[in-house]
Specification:
It is built from ten helices and five strands. By secondary structure, it is an alpha/beta fold. The protein folds into two domains: 2-129, Response regulator (Rossmann fold); 145-205, Arc Repressor Mutant, subunit A. It has a five-stranded parallel β-sheet, with helices on both faces. Helix 7 packs across helix 10. The chain is elongated. The two termini are 48 Å apart. Keywords: DNA-binding, Phosphoprotein, Transcription, Transcription regulation. This is NarL family two-component system response regulator LiaR. Residues 142-207 form the HTH luxR-type domain.
Amino acid sequence: MIKVLVADDHEMVRIGVSAYLSAQPDIEVIAEADDGDQAVEQALQLKPDIILMDLVMKRMDGIEATKQIMEVNPQAKIIIVTSFLDDEKVYPALEAGATSYILKTSKADEIAKAIRATHQGQTVLEPEVTGKIMNRMRQKKGNEPHTHLTEREQEILLLIAEGKNNQEIADQLFIALKTVKVHVSNILGKLGVNDRTQAAIYAFKHDLVE
């Protein structure tokens, strides 16, 4: 049996979800909480397999409750069940340690499926949440230091990673040695590294070269 704690300050929602889950052959609702404080207390005392956590609750919200539970029990599996999809709720909830994130508009059987999947170690996210995460990753990738290098600087960085010195780079690219030195200085500055070795390591770590 998958032991579940349901935390939601809306009584009708809490009762409805608990009733449906209790009718499942493999799920047992072992407790309910109507605020964040109670959710933390019961989660730490009863150690349920899954915690269904509402985000907006009195006294303590779901984000803070999730954070406090995870600090004491990093193995806890928390599914956020909410009506909110704005960035101010999604990212803090996931960063606090929530495993999955679904909406209250989900069908009852989808919530049950999310519980089973999360219990098995999977992450279940609303498509909109997945889209938000992908967009943030793309934005973060676009802000990485090497994306600010010019084409010539990128070319020289790859040659540095290959172990070529300034004179060899100048000969291969048919440019002046002084020009290479200027480019190398710019590369080090943009990457925030101190020397050519660190620049080469940066290139390998970011898969810029094989």
